[in-house]
Design goal:
15 strands, single chain, alpha+beta, six-stranded antiparallel beta sheet, 26% strand
Length: 224
């Protein structure tokens, strides 16, 4: 393979640091079947092969019978150009059902502290502090609701006001060390916890699926 192209890696050698959203995963499997290509390389820490971006693509490819994935390796922990943020969750479905699912974690709005370190549930007319970990909250939602992952808190708050969303959850950020610990320990984080901003990452790559399962290192295709 041309050294200027991202390499193919065996999926079995990669270390995830996040779970996947089952609904999102099924949607991506359908998309991969229909499209016939992997869209853009996943992003991997070069030292430990920790997956930084692409967990859903990896599991979708594996479920479809492929054992390789095209990846872009980067230096991670000590690279100040790599910024770590978090995703926020905008939840589709019934607002009353969402409140019912999360009722055990809701704190009375009158007792809330503006500087809370807990996640915040935003509804169209009020908000609650959620006295639970991100994992506990996401475990309660996954598979029950369709979730859109939003890159900034302000947009998530705006979506919570719309009738087609039941609400939004704004989460606190984490550190790169937490990502490495989760991957190396196997105690992975909830889906879409981390949002990595990677300058100059490869984009607009369309990698034919047939090259990902047969070991033949055919050139990935880049459409302009």
């Amino acid at each position: 393979m041309n050294p200027n192209h991202p390499p193919m890696l065996d999926i079995a050698t990669l270390r995830p640091h996040e779970q996947t959203d089952p609904i999102r995963l099924e949607d991506l499997k359908k998309q991969l079947r229909n499209d016939g290509y992997q869209r853009d390389p996943i992003i991997v820490d070069e030292k430990h092969l920790i997956v930084l971006d692409g967990h859903h693509r990896i599991l979708a490819l594996k479920a479809l019978g492929y054992h390789k994935v095209v990846a872009h390796k980067i230096r991670y922990v000590d690279n100040n150009e790599i910024t770590l943020r978090t995703w926020h969750s905008a939840v589709k479905g019934s607002r009353s059902r969402l409140l019912d699912v999360l009722q055990n974690y809701l704190e009375d709005p009158k007792k809330q502290n503006e500087k809370t370190e807990h996640p915040i549930l935003i509804l169209n007319d009020r908000q609650y502090t959620l006295k639970a970990s991100r994992k506990t909250i996401m475990d309660s939602l996954l598979g029950r609701f369709k979730i859109e992952y939003i890159p900034d808190a302000e947009t998530a708050r705006e979506l919570a006001k719309r009738d087609d969303y039941s609400g939004a959850i704004v989460f606190q950020s984490i550190e790169k060390g937490d990502v490495v610990k989760a991957a190396l320990s196997g105690s992975v984080l909830p889906p879409k916890t981390t949002q990595h901003i990677v300058p100059n990452k490869p984009t607009d790559w369309f990698i034919p699926l047939e090259i990902l399962g047969n070991g033949v290192e055919t050139e990935p295709t880049r459409k302009r």
